[in-house]
Amino acid sequence: MAEGANVRQNLQNIPSIFEISAAETLDNLIYPALSKLFDYLGLRVDFKLSDTKRIREEISPIITWILQYMYLRKRGSSFGESFYGLQRTHTKTGELLTRQQELIYASVLTLLPYIERKLQTRAQNHEASQWEEYVLKLFNAYKASKAIHTFLYLIKYAGSHSPIFRALRLTLRYPAQPPKEDKATYIVLKLLEVLAFFLQFIQWWYSNDQRRKVGGTLVNPEPLEEQPDMLKKCNTPKGECPICLMKIDNPTACSVSGYVYCWKCIITRLKNHPTCPVTGYAISMDDLIRIYETN
Prior knowledge:
By secondary structure, the chain is mainly alpha-helical. It is built from nine helices and seven strands.
């Protein structure tokens, strides 16, 4: 009887693949949601290295790393895993994470998705080098191996749901006892868990906003108040680029404003000014749409 109770307890301690998938989905929402929020607020790291080199990078990965490390330090799990009551433990011994492991796992949770998104953006814009395309293939190979590993976990053949967890000798379990933490930490982490709904709302809002840009009104938005880096209100003849004032070469539309530019012109401008040249609205590479003409 005691042996049967122990087996039943171990089975109940193993999360389903649906709970693990939901936790991963929540973790994957953090970076894009924060990225859209900070882009809207105009928060970026921006400084000059030299006369020709300028660093302009988003701060979303830094905030994401801090958030993930905080949860790994206090709960032994990522943000999404903690939300669903899961905890990372050693596969064989059941021991909790060490300080070194917490730093490594926070970096893995943050850097891998960040690098993949950057490479995908460069590949979509035809800017990826040969080695970058090779790294993207490695990411695709990892996703294929993870799908196989997930299936093995589903049929109870594997003890962990992903190759990374297996390589690090980790598994996800429900903790036998709730984590011990002081009242201040408990309040902060609970507030952060409420942030999960906020992140999902931002993602939903952005998705709907993008759909409105594609299928909404065809009237271009009014320009913002004039800024030093903005062009004058567009009065260029039809078929000419508002930047170079010549016939448009490789037409590229801005989904935010609807204005069309030369591909090279708008890409060059975005490196220093992430705004629509005519309207002044904030844009990124993701807002550019190549227009392919047919005969």
